[in-house]
Amino acid sequence: MRVVLTGSAGFIGRHIATALAEQGDEVVPVDLMLPQAHGPAEPPAGTLRLDVREATTWVHVLRGADVVVHQAALVGLGARVADLPAYAGHNDLGTATLLAAMHEAGVSALVLASSMVVYGEGRYTCPAHGSQQPAARRREDLDAGWFENPCPVCGGPLGCDLVEESAAVDPRSAYAAGKLAQEHYAAAWARQTGGRAVALRYHNVYGPGMPRDTPYSGVAAMFRSSVERGEAPQVFEDGGQMRDFVHVADVARANLLATRAVGESEAALTAYNVCSGTPVSILEVAQAVAGDGPAPRVTGGYRLGDVRHVVASPARAAKELGFRAEVSPDVGLAGFRHAALRA
């Protein structure tokens, strides 16, 4: 199988490239080498330094490909309002341009890196009023240290439940809006061209080769970088936020399975949660990464745009892709404590 892999030099992209090559696939690696993602690092040997926003100028690279695995994107919440044009350019325009180039090149299969952030808040249940979709948390409540979502009907506490791919989407950051836009563009492309797309909604990915902490890094990298400096990891809110952390080796394997399944899909676009299926709290993550180092410090601070709980159902990916995570968070996060990071 000939696979064009965008974002091939990134944290996840490198692991996908290795998994595909080990499977015997021909990998065509494409990466712009954005400083936000790579710093001053040089690309791996053989990388085509190309911009997906200009994909219609390198259609020849796409010709003959069986599938495009599209990882290239700006990641993170979007630290500032000034980041909005960059996110829209790289993630929205970049994906739309790549899809146009794929059509011109005759490529009809796409595996897209999406994210759990498209859901906004996760799924919640009130003991008295059943399933509920809470509104965005209010700044005044966060300032007062009230972090849990109340039931919109009675104001009582909501229980956290698994998010299935059919859940309502509610993006609450620049990155989330762009990821949902990528899914919509991919679905429109598939319907217009007869192509097929799979959107892999990554949950919190971690593992060796993760970039060190920047405003665009994941929380696991921030905790790991603090430990490396001999500092206590700083935990926002009360540390009770629930997430699903999935090891990058499992994410790479999900992509490999998706490249085999995408052409057989009946839907224009099918979304899958890529998760461990084992929810953990942010404080538990910090403690696992810290190990015997300085104990995590719960700060009570918060970031607008963060959501309280998002935990995923792995059922659809297991049934339709045959994907089940092999690295449990308790083992993977303890190992991540000693993993090498990228500058």
Topology overview:
Elements: E1 2-6, H1 11-22, E2 26-30, H2 35-38, H3 59-62, E3 67-70, H4 84-105, E4 109-115, E5 123-126, E6 130-132, H5 139-143, E7 159-163, H6 174-193, E8 196-202, E9 204-206, H7 219-228, E10 234-235, E11 242-247, H8 248-261, E12 269-274, E13 279-281, H9 282-290, E14 297-298, E15 311-312, H10 315-321, H11 329-336
Parallel strand pairs: 1-2, 1-3, 3-4, 4-8, 7-15, 8-12, 9-11, 10-14
Antiparallel strand pairs: 5-6, 5-7, 11-13
Helix pairs in contact: 1-8, 4-6, 7-9
Can you tell me the residue ranges where pLDDT is under 50 for at least 5 consecutive residues?
Answer: none
Q: How would you write the strand order of the largest sheet?
A: 2-1-3-4-8-12
Average pLDDT works out at 93
Oligomerization state: single chain
- The secondary structure category is alpha/beta
Number of helices: 11
Give the overall silhouette: globular
Describe the main β-sheet briefly: 6 strands, parallel
How many β-strand stretches?
15
Approximately what portion of the residues adopt beta-strand conformation? Answer: 15-25%
Question: Can you write the helix and strand succession as a string?
Answer: EHEHHEHEEEHEHEEHEEHEEHEEHH
Separation of the first and last Cα atoms = 33 Å
Radius of gyration: 20 Å
